[in-house]
Every structure is written in C-alpha cells, then in structure tokens.
C-alpha cells in the first residue's frame, strides 16, 4: 500500500477489535487511526488510544465517560460518550471502518459509515441479519464497500467468482459444531456458561461463543451469507467441520469446489479486509498441512441444534422474522450468561418469541427498530428478565 489508510474501529476493546488493533500496530507505516469506540471498558480503550493516537475515543456507556476523560487527560485526544457519540465516531472521515460491536447495537453506527461511503470491514453479522436488504441497498446507493470479516464469509468472498455468479452451484458454510457437538440434549441441559464460552478452536467474545455452542451462530451466518452473496437460501449448505481449518467453500456447476483454508485465527480474515485489495503480511500465522492429522465432515443434527431450523425458517419467511430471531437470541444469551435460564432455554425462548410475534413487512429502519424493541420486550417477558440489552436503537 502506498498512502496510509485511515482506520476507525467500532468495538476496539473486543475480541475482533483487539485483533484489529494488533494488526495495525504490526504495520505502522500502512495505517493511521481516526476513532476508537468501546461500550464501557475505559481502561483498555484509553491504553489503545494512547498508543494509536486517534482523534476521538468514545464509550457508549455514559457511566464510563469520567474514567475515560481522566485516563486521556493531557493527550489531546477528544473524548465522548453515549450511543449518539458512537454514531458520530463512525461518521468521522476515515477510509476504512471495522464494524466489531456485538449485536444489533452495531447497526446504527455501521450505517453511519456506509452513508459516508467508507470501506467497511464487517464483523458484526447481527446488523445484516436485522437489516440485510436495507443495508445492502444503502451500500449500493452510497458507493460504500462491504468486506466480510466473519471467517466463513471472508473465505467465500475470496473464492466466489462474482463475474460468473450464475455458474455457482452452492455455497458450503462450515461449522465447528461448537463445544457441545457430541453432547446429548440431556447433557446440554446441564451445561454452564463457562463451558459454553469455551470454544474448541476460536478465542471469541462471550455472545458469539454461546451462539457457536447453540449453533445459532451458523444460523445467523446463513442469513449473513444470503445477503452478502448472489445465491438463494436453498443454495447455502451447512456442513460440520470440527477442525475449523476449511473456513468455507464455493461449489461450481462443473464440479469444482474452491475453498479457503487457514488456522483458526481471526487475524487472517481481518488482515484480508484491512489490506484489501492487497494482502497484508502476518508472518506468525502459518498453516502446516502435515501438522493437521485429519480434516473431517459431518451433517449438522437438527434435533440437537434447532437454531439451524429456526434461522432457515426466519430467512425463508423474511420480513420481521430475522429481526425477531436475532433480538430474542440476544436477550436469551444474555440471560443464560447471567445464570437466569439454562442452555436449552435459549432456543426455547427464541422459538416462543417467534411464535408470539406475527410476521410483518419491513420497509424502513424505523420498522427494524420497532420490531427489534418489541421482540426484546417479548423475549424478556417470557423469562421475567428485566434487561433488554444491546437494542439497535435505545
Ligand atoms: N470474536 C470473533 O472471533 C468473531 C466475531 N464476530 C462478530 O463480531 C462482532 C464482535 O464480536 P466479539 O469481538 O467477539 O465481541 P466482544 O464481546 O469481544 O466485543 C464487543 C465490542 O463491542 C463493544 N460493545 C458491546 N456492546 C456495545 C454497545 N451496546 N454499544 C457500543 N459498543 C458495544 C464492546 O465494548 P466493551 O469492551 O467496553 O464491552 C467491545 O468493544 C459480533 O457481531 C460477532 O458475531 C464474527 C466472527 C468472529
Ligand atoms: C471465527 C468465526 O468466524 C466464528 O463465527 C466461528 O466460525 C465460530 O465457529 P462455529 O460457529 O463454526 O463454531
Ligand atoms: Mn464465523
């Protein structure tokens, strides 16, 4: 790369965010940093800001403002707080933005960056699940560019022949199967949050780790793939591949199947998007085929992992269903992590919320926001849970 690319990171203190920061620090001549945002981890955000010298550092939670301000006093870095300030951070002029907030809370700031035509590295799959059609239309309208960061979608992006999309037979999304791949339903009933977040291959934030354990992550990724690539829902197949080395595949009409392989390390898909259309060097990551004893594949079990059925049905219904699926899942996962409900209750809450909310059309972001709020309330009521975390609009 010749000129330095200016970068903003939404969710810089999270798992994807810290990997992005570390890649930027490994390539000081290639990048400068414009804005960093977190929810409430002011200590880590301030450390990152002192090293990367952004114009602006923002915490979404106003309660963390005083701490951030104190920690960055005298640095000349502007400090702000609140959801609107996160959106303002996304609006600041940068070439490239990493969307790595977790949940539907990432939708509004990501759209703010789309509107100014930025290149977006998209980790936050929930915003495509909730507002995929609206978001893709905005990207087209505003001349923005979406680069998938989710490992499977980065893999597909790298091997999908967009000039011959009609020659694609299907996309094969790989799934690790998560920590409970071989558990019976009875065993799953007793698992703890600590067991659920212990992913066998990937080191990720708590919410996505639980999603991997229920396989709702793959359900969300099915919907994400539908919006990112010119294929029908029926052309997206899910295959369990416990080693997470083949990150996904594209099968063509002539029988050729192209795959992207790599170690299960998010720095690879993040580096691909950060450097795009060039490739960044990440010398510490090397896949050595002779060190891998085997690559295996299985069909997913719909009985033990009902998330796959629910997500596919929501995608096929369209309209409000994917928004309800996502919102109920966010509430249920949060309740599980806080010890309010059991692991199997997560999908029971999602299914019951979908049953209780009649499907309706979605025409605008206001519709998305209203359905999201209603679904959070419905799911929280089902479990008498007082929180409605991470709404796409407060
Ligand atoms: N982790 C991974 O390897 C992968 C993640 N993804 C997707 O990327 C996204 C981020 O995942 P991950 O990094 O694991 O998540 P983490 O929980 O590790 O990090 C989330 C980040 O978002 C911030 N945040 C949380 N809630 C809010 C909010 N309401 N408003 C503003 N900021 C908020 C957090 O701040 P704070 O630290 O202050 O709480 C943190 O910076 C998710 O959508 C996930 O599905 C996709 C593929 C792989
Ligand atoms: C790293 C990444 O992209 C995650 O979404 C990962 O794929 C989770 O693994 P599974 O959902 O396949 O268990
Ligand atoms: Mn993924």
UniProtKB/TrEMBL annotation:
Q: If you read the UniProt record, what top EC class would you report for this enzyme, in one word?
A: oxidoreductase
What residues bind 1-deoxy-D-xylulose 5-phosphate, as annotated? 125, 151-152, 176, 199, 212, 217-218, 221
Q: Which reaction does it catalyse?
A: 2-C-methyl-D-erythritol 4-phosphate + NADP(+) = 1-deoxy-D-xylulose 5-phosphate + NADPH + H(+)
Q: What Enzyme Commission number(s) does the record list for this chain?
A: 1.1.1.267
Where is the 1-deoxy-D-xylulose 5-phosphate reductoisomerase C-terminal domain positioned along the sequence? 146-229
**Gene Ontology molecular function, alphabetical:** 1-deoxy-D-xylulose-5-phosphate reductoisomerase activity; isomerase activity; manganese ion binding; NADPH binding
- For the ligand (NADPH), the binding residues are 13-16, 40-41, 124, 126, 205
Question: Does the record carry Metal-binding as a key word?
Answer: yes
Pathway given in the UniProt record: Isoprenoid biosynthesis; isopentenyl diphosphate biosynthesis via DXP pathway; isopentenyl diphosphate from 1-deoxy-D-xylulose 5-phosphate: step 1/6
Q: Does the keyword Secreted apply?
A: no
As for what it does, the entry says: Catalyzes the NADPH-dependent rearrangement and reduction of 1-deoxy-D-xylulose-5-phosphate (DXP) to 2-C-methyl-D-erythritol 4-phosphate (MEP).
Family listed: Belongs to the DXR family.
Please state what the protein is called.
1-deoxy-D-xylulose 5-phosphate reductoisomerase
Organism, as annotated: Defluviicoccus vanus
